[in-house]
Design a protein that fits this description.
This protein is an alpha/beta fold and 1445 residues long. Helix content is 43%, strand content 11%. The chain contains 54 helices and 29 strands.
Length: 1445
């Protein structure tokens, strides 16, 4: 039953296909390996077709579903192919006879004797000569007549409907011309077109990836005559497909209109616009065709107006596009919102201006949304429908061919679509949009099994995901599902054995049997290992066994054959291991290692090596482990490595796999943790494979190692299929232009695991991996789903073992760790010992999520750079501070590393100093790499974790002079309304410019563009030396486009990430940076560290007392927006930020005459704090100061030790005790007075946030002076009074007065009364009096000095212009910005505050002091949930207003 002749006999009888020499020649021509299993499947499908039962095949990916259906379609249409062979044979015989009958002289003179025997295309002119030359007899003339008559008779044959001329000319037109004109020219044109025509396939494959970010792929099948090899079990995987439909580019689809607007549609002049809004893609200029009897209406049933009628909308409603673009009037061009380009509905990216959108062959573009309309489905299938109808008309009189499905439509991966209702109608009901499909069209579908998300784990030890990202099928479709199954062990053995004999006819049967068994055992072992792996992760044994079938497929078998053939060519020419006789076995073992061994983790790798080494060996044969390691070592020795790169096992495998897969065009996916040399290996490979320019002799053999032309794409969580499609299209077009050159284009996809699976943006990869026209390498941190990994070779990088990590560490320490300098032996031993604490920490999940191998590598590199003589504990501590910081467990990490170090050296750790966070940051930002080896990323960029919600900590770095304002550029991605993708592109371009100029860049709220700089953050620069010295380059990506950017040696980057977002930040991103966690508490400790010890004690005492006050009044309930860091931030805004030089304080002599001693002493004390200690203390009125003096003097003098001392203190004696506290009673009293006043001052600042309700509740707990101050000196009930008091203070002095106010209030009618935009007398005429009245009542009496803007729906650029206009004005003094927190987000407020500070810093020459007021109003129901956090910054003050007026 398993012999070919028996199988062919049964297929011949069932399908009605004629045997030739006892075999089906169609199968041999396609090089299809027919097995008993495939035969039974074909018969099963054929039986279902004859019975009229729909077919949906359910099977694992890569089991040969498509190839089997395509082969079956070819067998179904054998009569067409046979009839074409007969007709072409007759034409050939007539032409041959015609040439023989021509005179020999004529033939020789025109070169026609060997015309038909030459394997080339014959021109129309030669054919015309053949038809027009006189013959030697009358019979020759009759041949020409018979030839013409035969050609004209062919136009009624069905096969003519399947012919495609090479010039794509219309055969019907040529037949008509030849029939009308009995001339040699017309006959020659028809003869030339028919004789060299090719047979179109009747097999149509529709790859369905119609989801958000996805698209439909329509692949035309390949004629048996066009291509001798069908894609069966992935045979000829690397060959290009021919005969595909040419790309058709439809217009960009406009977004859907809003729900109500979409219910009505304007005909006539607005017809084209309505079609595009509905989502119909049609060729430019074509008229829209609707099904018979159907009127054009809205999708949701709205009736379109009659022709000529005006569209009527509800009162007050305008017609708008869904995303804000207003619909144009008739004949007008569509106007999009500012900065917005017209694009597809769900994130399809429009091409750049002037660029043409490039689609892959055979693909039409449709709106990227979840469900496609019937019209779109019908347009996709139009070629198949047209062909079926043409054949049906031709064959309707032939009863014997009545039931043969001349056209086969194969819907692949149907359960990735969200339009399963349409699929059900097409397959089961055999209708599309209610219209029946042609009777001679057979529709079948295929899908991968749905297993839910239980198998979709991203654990780092998982080398396999047994699940597919698919949807469950409709219940109706589940009833017709047919389990395709997979080959069992015996069937696989038969298939592989037959394939080996077909490819290698010179190998003995014994060796073929041995090699076949190796492949069979490998396939079986992968399933067994996969089952054990899945079971160990809590998956039920039954589910694990089923899912394990997806671990391998027939694609893997084909890849083994492809690699074996390529390796044998290399062994035959170069003989790298001498004159051996086991090269065939060695090639198979190496191919098995690439395909199977490298996908496993450490545990199963050992098991696989044992399996290969122990079994299936002939005497004296090479072992698997030896053959594979020999190959790794041979290739790594041929590669030129940059200095300082250790030859670890990971690097060897990565480089080896990348070289092999890129030159053979086998897709490769490298899976590994960050820092496992994935990107480095690819860059090294590209740097070595440069064709004739390669430095190594091996890679100059371009016939085997073509040069690589990389096309980079940086994935992100927002990656779209359109971007991936663009990269591949660009690479494919580039490859076609280089066909004559030994160059392979390769698409490199970085961080392929980042795109969200729910977007299905990676589904588009299936098409390009099944039909690889260019090489492909992807790197990811976790395994992708089975549908993708099955289409490529997987290289899984397990966790670094101790030996490999030690090799890596030693390689980082010195260039030749095997022969180190004598003085480095001891240090190398210490470096090896330091691997132990890192390995122990990596066993902890929290540590592994935050740190990685990159951090350890840079830790060793720092030790090497900073260690002058021998390693010491202080250098180790500094290296830890730079590379393992930012975690709550930092101190514990230091203890573990230092303990290991001290045990080895018997060193003492009590003298190891731990630096403040600001000192570490300063040192890091000032650090510069060694120019001699600049390509090595010795100094990493910085990542600051900000626990605050207002982005204030980064701005404090400027305050503390960690960052230089002149050399630093701050970039924030805008969330303001109206800002578009163009805004992000401009931000990327500005950062790119800063990299060229060597600025320090701070990136805050920029997570949307982080992926564009992954290569820059990685800092593996490409160095180019020219006349100006070395230049360094890194790739910066914008969507699908990645271009090299020059990087200045002085460039530094500081990325800010909110602490709440760290858990969601990809590990590859975190591992690229030095990480530091800034808190207000840490900064306050740093600020106290630069104060004299006595002053530090005073401030700590003050902080304790203020916290006591906050606790007394239940601060979070009483003070609006209070956080745990509020008190520390308030102290930071007051303290000096750099070491202050204390000067003796000289009081004014005339103070005693007009003021009481208590007030004078307090005045002098405050001035001493400002001038001598450098404190930033705001001014206050004399009345308020008097109240403070009475309060604090009462508290101090109530102490028995200080009674009567106040009268003895003179103003000259106040400053002498700041900061040097004396031991005299007077000195102690001044310190106590200063402490009490600072406590009162800070408490009063906090009470600016207290609500009246809280004051009422806690009034009995507070001193009465606080109540008086709140009601008399604070402005909680009038915005106008608050602005008046602040302006009065600013007009008196701007040194210690805040210039920026952040006010909170409830949304009220008074807030709404304020105009949305106001600029003094320049306000618009309508409503002028009302606007002036509102400004006078609520803001300020001087109208010309006031500017008001409400932030709703204002883009960033508009706000910047308004700020610039305000600061440049010589008449305006108050800018009021109003934000409705029900519409404005916290990041928008943070960004706005940064823009205010930038505008204020850019203009310091204004004669008038400028006051910025930011009013945040929130809905009353949100009172208990603060809309914004109150964290103090110098120059800002915060107020809670119970009402604005």
């Amino acid at each position: 039953m398993q012999t070919r002749d028996i199988l062919d006999k049964y297929l011949s009888k069932a399908l009605g296909v004629e045997l030739k020499d006892g075999l089906l020649k169609q199968i041999d021509e396609a090089k299809y390996v027919l097995t008993l299993d495939y035969t039974l499947k074909m018969l099963n499908i054929h039986e279902r077709y004859r019975c009229g039962v729909p077919v949906i095949i359910v099977g694992e990916t890569g089991v040969g579903k498509t190839a089997l259906v395509q082969m079956l379609s070819a067998l179904w249409n054998h009569s067409l192919l046979g009839s074409w062979n007969v007709e072409k044979g007759r034409i050939h015989d007539l032409l041959t006879q015609r040439i023989k009958d021509l005179s020999e002289d004529s033939c020789e003179s025109y070169g026609l004797i060997n015309l038909l025997s030459e394997d080339k295309h014959v021109s129309c002119e030669d054919m015309q000569l053949l038809c027009s030359l006189p013959g030697s007899s009358q019979s020759s003339e009759m041949l020409c007549i018979r030839l013409r008559q035969h050609l004209l008779a062919m136009r009624h044959l069905p096969v003519v409907r399947l012919l495609v001329t090479k010039e794509k000319t219309d055969l019907g037109t040529l037949f008509a011309e030849a029939d009308a004109n009995n001339t040699a020219e017309a006959t020659a044109k028809l003869l030339q077109a028919v004789y060299f025509a090719q047979l179109k396939s009747t097999f149509y494959k529709l790859n369905i990836h119609a989801a958000r970010g996805g698209s439909f792929n329509l692949e035309r099948g390949i004629s048996i005559k066009e291509k001798k090899e069908v894609k069966q079990p992935r045979l000829g995987e690397n060959a290009r497909r021919r005969g595909r439909q040419e790309p058709v580019l439809g217009p960009e689809l406009e977004p859907r209109v809003s729900a109500r607007a979409a219910e009505l549609r304007v005909e006539g002049q607005n017809q084209n616009k309505a079609e595009s809004e509905q989502g119909k893609s049609s060729a430019a200029g074509e008229e829209r065709v609707l099904p018979p009897g159907r009127k054009e209406s809205c999708r949701r049933g709205g009736k379109s107006p009659a022709a000529g009628e005006e569209r009527v909308l509800p009162p007050g409603r305008k017609e708008f596009c869904r995303r804000g673009g207003e619909s144009p009037a008739a004949g007008e061009a569509r106007v999009m919102p500012p900065g917005r380009k017209e694009s597809c509905r769900r994130g399809g990216k429009s091409p750049a201006d002037g660029e043409e959108r490039v689609l892959p062959p055979g693909r039409k573009e449709f709106c990227r949304r979840g469900a496609l309309t019937p019209l779109e489905i019908q347009e996709l299938l139009k070629p198949a429908f047209d062909q079926a109808r043409d054949l049906q008309l031709q064959l309707e009189s032939k009863q014997n061919l009545e039931r043969i499905p001349f056209v086969t439509v194969f819907l692949d991966e149907v359960n990735t679509s969200s339009c399963l209702g349409l699929i059900k109608e097409f397959i089961v009901d055999r209708t599309l949009d209610g219209k029946p499909i042609p009777e001679n069209m057979f529709v079948m579908a295929a899908c991968n099994p749905h297993r839910g998300n239980s198998l979709a784990s991203h654990e780092q030890d998982r080398w396999l995901r047994g699940s597919y990202y698919v949807r469950p099928l409709h219940p109706t479709l589940q009833l017709i599902m047919w389990d395709y199954g997979s080959l069992d062990k015996a069937q696989e053995r038969d298939y592989i054995n037959a394939k080996m004999k077909m490819l290698h006819r010179t190998i003995s049967n014994v060796e073929i049997a041995s090699l076949t068994e190796l492949i069979v055992e490998s396939q079986e072992a992968m399933r067994h290992y996969a089952e054990k792996l899945l079971s160990s992760h809590g998956i039920s044994p039954e589910e694990a066994k089923i899912a394990s079938h997806s671990s391998v497929s027939q694609r893997d078998i084909q890849r083994v054959f492809t690699l074996h053939e390529w390796l044998m060519k290399g062994y035959t020419t170069s003989k790298p291991y001498g004159d051996r006789t086991d090269y065939h076995r060695r090639a198979v073992l190496v191919a098995l290692g690439i395909v199977y061994y490298m996908r496993l983790n450490t545990k199963f790798r050992e098991a696989y090596k044992d399996l290969m080494d122990k079994g299936n060996r002939l005497p004296n044969e090479v072992r698997f482990s030896q053959a594979f390691n020999d190959e790794l070592n041979w290739y790594i020795d041929q590669v030129e490595l940059p200095q300082g790169i250790a030859k670890t096992q990971a690097l060897k495998e990565n480089i080896f796999a990348t070289i092999i897969c890129t030159v053979t065009r086998i897709p490769l996916i490298i899976v590994g943790a960050p820092g496992s040399s994935k990107t480095l290996s690819f860059n090294i490979t590209v740097a070595n494979l440069k064709g004739q320019e390669s430095k190594m002799q091996l890679f100059r053999h371009t016939d085997k190692y073509p040069a690589l032309d990389p096309h980079y794409y940086q994935c992100s969580r927002r990656t779209t299929s359109n971007e991936i499609q663009t990269v591949f299209s660009r690479a494919i077009n580039r490859q076609k232009s280089l066909n004559s050159l030994p160059i392979n284009c390769v698409v490199f996809m970085d961080e392929a695991g980042l795109p969200e699976e729910s977007h299905e943006s990676l589904k588009v990869l299936h098409y390009y991996l099944d039909n690889p026209e260019v090489s492909f390498v992807a790197i990811t941190n976790h395994v992708l789903d089975a549908a993708k990994t099955n289409r490529a070779i997987s290289l899984f990088r397990p966790e670094s073992l101790a030996d490999d990590l030690e090799t890596l560490a030693k390689g980082c320490w010195c260039s030749d760790p095997d022969n180190p300098p004598p003085k480095s032996n001891h240090d190398l031993s210490m470096i090896a010992k330091l691997c132990t604490p890192y390995i122990n920490k990596m066993k902890q999940k929290e540590f592994k999520q935050f740190f990685g191998l990159r951090d350890f590598i840079h830790f060793v590199n720092y030790l090497r750079r900073k260690c002058q003589n021998a390693l010491n504990a202080q250098v180790v501590q500094e290296a830890l501070e730079r590379n393992f910081n930012g975690s709550d467990e930092f101190e514990h990490i230091c203890k573990q590393f230092l303990y290991t170090f001290s045990c080895q050296l018997d060193a003492h750790l009590e003298h190891v100093a731990q630096r403040q966070i600001l000192d570490i940051l300063r040192d890091s930002l000032a650090d510069r790499p060694n120019e001699a080896n600049r390509t090595e990323n010795e100094v990493r960029y910085k990542l600051i974790i900000d626990p605050s919600e207002d982005d204030s900590l980064v701005r404090l770095l400027f305050t503390f002079s960690v960052l230089d304002r002149q050399k630093t550029r701050v970039f924030v991605c805008s969330d303001f309304p109206g800002d578009t993708h163009l805004q992000k592109i401009n931000t990327i371009a500005a950062i790119r410019h800063s990299a060229i100029e060597g600025h320090t860049v701070v990136m805050a709220q920029t997570d949307d563009i982080h992926e564009s700089f992954y290569d820059l953050f990685n800092q593996r620069f490409r160095r180019i030396d020219d006349a100006h010295g070395p230049r360094y380059y890194a790739n910066i990506a914008i969507g699908a486009h990645s271009k090299p950017c020059r990087v200045h040696p002085e460039f530094q980057c500081v990325v800010v990430v909110k602490q709440s977002e760290v858990k969601n930040t990809p590990a590859p991103f975190l591992n690229r940076f030095e990480k530091y966690c800034l808190t207000h508490h840490a900064l306050l400790d740093a600020a106290l560290g630069i104060l004299p010890p006595c002053m530090a004690v005073i401030i700590r005492t003050v902080r304790e007392k203020v916290n006591e006050f906050v606790g007394l009044v239940r601060g979070k309930e009483s003070f609006y927006g209070l956080k745990e860091e509020t008190t520390d931030s308030l102290l930071l805004s007051m303290l000096p930020t750099e070491r202050h030089t204390y000067q003796p304080y000289e009081p004014k002599d005339d103070l005693m005459s007009d003021n009481a001693i208590k007030v004078v002493c307090l005045q002098e004390l405050i001035r001493a704090f400002r001038t001598s200690a450098g404190f930033h203390i705001p001014t206050c009125s004399l009345e308020e100061l008097t109240l403070d003096a009475q309060h604090v003097s009462y508290l101090v003098c109530s102490d028995p030790e200080f009674q009567g001392l106040l009268q003895n203190i003179t103003p000259q004696g106040v400053g002498g005790n700041i900061p040097n506290v004396g031991l005299s009673p007077e000195g102690c009293m001044m310190v106590a007075l200063g402490v009490q006043w600072l406590v009162r001052h800070l408490c009063k600042r906090l009470m600016q946030l207290m609500t009246p309700e809280a004051l009422t509740v806690h009034r009995m707990k507070m001193d009465s002076s606080y109540l008086i101050n709140y009601l008399k000196h604070h402005s909680h009930f009038s915005l106008k009074v608050l602005i008046r008091d602040c302006l009065a203070a600013l007009n008196h002095t701007t040194v210690y007065c805040p210039t920026k106010l952040l006010c909170y209030t409830r949304t009220s009618s008074l807030v709404h009364k304020l105009p949305s935009s106001y600029s003094g007398i320049g306000f618009y005429a309508r409503g002028l009096e009302l606007a002036h009245e509102a400004i006078r009542d609520l803001v300020h009496d001087d109208l010309a000095a006031v500017v008001v803007h409400k932030l709703s729906n204002k883009p960033q650029n508009s706000i910047r212009e308004q700020l610039k206009t305000y600061v440049m004005s010589e008449s305006t003094q108050v800018l009021l910005l109003i934000a409705n927190m029900a519409e404005v987000t916290v990041p928008m407020v943070n960004h706005l505050r940064i823009m205010i500070e930038e505008a204020e810093n850019q203009n310091q020459c204004s004669r008038l002091p400028k006051l910025f007021v930011l009013l945040l109003h929130f809905p009353p129901y949100n009172f208990l949930n603060p809309c914004y956090s109150t964290l103090y910054l110098r120059g800002w003050d915060h107020y809670y207003l119970d009402t604005v007026g």
